Amino acid sequence: xxxxxxxxxxxxxxxxxxxxxxxxxxxxxxxxxxxxxxxxxxxxxxxxxxxxxxxxxxxxxxxxxxxxxxxxxxxxxxxxxxxxxxxxxxxxxxxxxxxxxxxxxxxxxxxxxxxxxxxxxxxxxxxxxxxxxxxxxxxxxxxxxxxxxxxxxxxxxxxxx
Length: 161
Prior knowledge:
The chain is mainly α and 161 residues long. The chain is built from seven helices and two strands, in the order H-H-H-H-H-E-H-H-E. Helix 6 packs across helix 7. It is rod-shaped.
């Protein structure tokens, strides 16, 4: 598993060792590397088993349609230690966002500018004339909206017809 060059870099006294010592070192030195390789193989097997479960669910259409891209995404160094469920959600979100960006580009219209909505002119605007209403409407206004009624009376804008 280890080459002579790797062992020479790891152990400065490797060049002075006998052939038997080098053979033993190769045997013993390969255990951590072998353990790492077995763990990586186990992780890949577990990933593939979990991926098959995800692919069996028809609601995971994005993963099914883009399996190669998903595997490349999952095997990136920064994603290797993340659980598959987290990777699945991140990948689906990334795909939806790229689809939304493409749809915005197809409209060829710039997005609407953000700002204030059109509204009324406010309280003090547009009420210069007296409010004309019947006695019945005035009574309803007085009982249902007393503040508005009082404001109209105080300002002299209430005119009963």
